Amino acid sequence: MIKNFLIATTLVTVITVALFGFQGEQRQGTAIEFFGDMKRQDKVKYQRPSSFFADGRAARPPVDDTIPMGYDIPEHPMQNSGVPKDDIDCPLGEYSAGTDYLNTGKMGDQWGTGLPLPVTAQLLRRGQQEFTIDCAVCHGATGQGNGITSKYGLL
Fold first, then answer.
1. CA-CA distance, 110 to 25, in Å (whole number)?
2. Which residue from 80, 104, 125, 155 could staple onto 150, CB 3.0 to 4.6 Å apart?
3. CA 119 to CA 149: how far, in whole Å?
4. What is the domain partition of the chain in residue ranges?
């Protein structure tokens, strides 16, 4: 009876190690992942090219006649300094405040590379507050990926 138990336990252990492997070990090729990492998940990296779509862009324009999250249906078409909504060159159309860098991310025909807002102490405090609320649990206070969830084996 004990012999059968030891054989079964050994067999289960070998199968488990064979399936899950030694996590963190260097391998040739991609290992089988039962719980995939965020760095290898399918995702869109904005402002990067993508061969998936015909136009080569990863970032997609909003679908026509849809309402962005957090917005209400406007009672009247937006007028931006007397400019009709059809003349606004912005992906969000009537939900946008205009065609400037803050709303479009563009400076003329070029995509901007800077922050559209002045960096103030208030803006930095707000960013720190949002990071602490939404990100630090997983990424840690310094962004190193050593948040509280990693201590419980969740990452």
1. 44
2. 155
3. 31
4. 2-41+119-151, 42-116
Integer Cα distance of 135 and 142 in angstroms:
10
Task: Report the range of poorest mean pLDDT among 69-73, 112-116, 136-140.
Answer: 69-73
Helices (H) and strands (E) in the chain, counts: 5, 2
CA 38 centroid distance within chain = 10
Instruction: Tell me if 110 sits within 8 A of 122, measured CB to CB.
Output: no
HEC string for 58-127:
CCCCCCCCCCCCCCCCCCCCCCECCECHHHCCCCCHHHCCCCCHHHHCEECCEECCCCCCCCCHHHHHHH
